[in-house]
Amino acid sequence: MYSAEKLREIINNEIDRRLAQLSARKPEELYAPVKYSLGAGGKRLRPVLLLTSFNLFSDEIEKALPAAIAVEVFHNFTLLHDDIMDKAEMRRNNPTVHVKFSENNAILSGDAMAFLSYQYLAEYHTPQLFDVVDLFTKTALQVCEGQQYDMDFENRMDVTEEEYLEMIRLKTAVLLGCSLKAGALLAGTSGETAQQLYNYGINLGMAFQLQDDWLDTFGNQKDFGKKIGGDILANKKTWLLIKALEKASGQAKTSLTYWLDAKEYAETEKINSIIAVYNELGIKMLGEEKIKFYFNAAEKIVQDLPVSELRKAPLQKFGRSMLGRSV
């Protein structure tokens, strides 16, 4: 069995190898942003999940390594385009690709990464490849659907909690579910067990995205890797804001409405003022409870997997570490 730390090391070494190959490809301007994005590090959550899932059933993880790299390349492609749409300036404590290069570079290099991910995915010729490609393609479309919903929400003030949860399921959770199910399929496992792993990824992804939103407001910038309060400044319809609008009345409602409508403001003042409303309404604790709900659902699924405790221990440990939990 491989630990998550060892799998991450294997993945990083493989990414370095492939980046060296990309260095020889022309035009250099197309591949430089790709190398910059993939070389900036990151948690490698999705490829680690894919290899960990594969490792539940097989120790020959090198067979699943191309698929793991494909998932990571695809994920980073979405980040390039998301950062443009969100006007984000920082990613992993570095300037985002469109800031470092240009928006046009980020769009085109992102497109190249999407196609590279399919090229890498197809490297391991196995009877399960068609099912994995089908899953990957369905997931890619769902991620785009989730991003569209996220964009649509920018112009709405009536986004419901149910709509938001469906958006993050599509935008974030399905790729984690895909990674886990793909690992199981590549190992020759199908049916109920592969679906259980997919469902585990969905719940883990929901908890992870809710925590990401929570950290954007209540986290530490150095640890988070992005500017704190970015969602607040962008008036993003996060679960925190949706719940605050649902609960607010009186002065709290007036304050939220004022800052959401404001066109000119000091950024720090807006962030601090909305956080003050959140604190008044108990949104911080409610957010923590929602994260815990999905985390517990994920834990229940992995506990019920028809795999030995020894085999699934690394998966449980890694899932907990994603959310900074020890139990």
Describe this structure in words.
- The chain has 327 residues and is an all-alpha fold.
- It has one domain (4-322): Farnesyl Diphosphate Synthase (Orthogonal Bundle), CATH 1.10.600.10.
- Helices cover 75% and strands 1% of the residues.
- It has 16 helices and two strands.
- It has a two-stranded antiparallel sheet.
- Helix 1 (4-22) packs antiparallel against helix 2 (28-39), helix 7 packs antiparallel against helix 8 and helix 12 (239-247) crosses helix 15.
- The chain is globular and about 60 Å long.
- The mean pLDDT is 94.
Return the average pLDDT rounded to an integer: 94
Low-pLDDT segments, ≥5 res:
none
CATH class: Mainly Alpha
Question: What is the global morphology?
Answer: globular
Q: What is the count of distinct domains?
A: 1
Count of runs of 4 or more consecutive helical residues: 16
Q: What about the largest sheet?
A: 2 strands, antiparallel
Q: Which CATH architecture is right?
A: Orthogonal Bundle
Keywords:
mainly alpha, two-stranded antiparallel sheet, globular
Brief characterization of the structure:
The chain is mainly alpha-helical. It contains 16 helices and two strands.
How do the helices and strands line up, and which of them pair or pack?
Layout (H helix, E strand, L loop, with lengths): L3 H19 L5 H12 L5 H11 L9 H22 L3 E2 L2 E2 L1 H4 L2 H19 L7 H25 L7 H26 L4 H28 L2 H4 L5 H4 L5 H9 L2 H12 L5 H15 L1 H21 L5 H14 L5
Antiparallel strand pairs: 1-2
